């Protein structure tokens, strides 16, 4: 959920949203949800001569599945914060134990092979 958290920090900032049908809208990010649906206010169309029917828009809701790109001004991007959040999300968890390994191909749990010390029983002599 790094992207949702990141986009929530951009609420109130101006962004540009390029849709899959090549329309580009700019506006103030009002809200974003877990599906990355966005609501823009103070909307402007980048090419008003090409899309005159959209010039009357003041606010709009954009479904996340129709978004191609969201352009963010560089001054609103905290790269250090994003890198730290990515590291935390991808860090190995303390709950994973060394006795069970999950294989990537099948997703099944496999016991690791016994070590040399545990494979040979000790004699009592």
List descriptors:
125 residues, alpha+beta, 5-stranded antiparallel beta sheet, two-stranded antiparallel ribbon, 3 helices, 19% helix, elongated
Give the integer mean of the pLDDT values. Answer: 80
Order of helices and strands: HEEEEEHEEH
Q: Provide the β-strand percentage band.
A: 25-35%
The helix fraction, in percent, is 10-25%
Uncertain parts: 97-106
Largest sheet entry? 5 strands, antiparallel
Distance between the termini: 59 Å
Strand order of the largest sheet: 4-3-2-1-5
What count of helical segments does DSSP give?
3
Number of strands: 7
Give the overall form. elongated
Summed up, what is this model?
This protein is 19% helix and 29% strand. It is an alpha+beta fold and 125 residues long. Strands 4-3-2-1-5 form a five-stranded antiparallel β-sheet.
What layout of secondary structure does this protein have?
Layout lengths: L1 H8 L4 E6 L4 E9 L5 E8 L13 E4 L4 E5 L7 H12 L10 E2 L6 E2 L5 H4 L6
Antiparallel strand pairs: 1-2, 1-5, 2-3, 3-4, 6-7
């Amino acid at each position: 959920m790094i992207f949702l958290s990141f986009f929530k920090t951009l609420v109130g900032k101006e962004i540009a949203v390029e849709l899959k049908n090549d329309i580009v809208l700019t506006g103030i990010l009002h809200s974003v949800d877990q599906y990355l649906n966005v609501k823009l206010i103070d909307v402007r169309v980048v090419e008003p001569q090409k899309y005159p029917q959209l010039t009357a828009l003041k606010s709009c809701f954009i479904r996340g599945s129709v978004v191609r790109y969201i352009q963010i001004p560089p001054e609103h991007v905290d790269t250090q914060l994003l890198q730290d959040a990515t590291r935390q999300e991808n860090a190995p968890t303390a709950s994973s134990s060394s006795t069970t390994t999950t294989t990537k191909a099948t997703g099944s749990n496999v016991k690791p092979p016994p070590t040399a010390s545990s494979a040979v029983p000790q004699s009592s002599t």
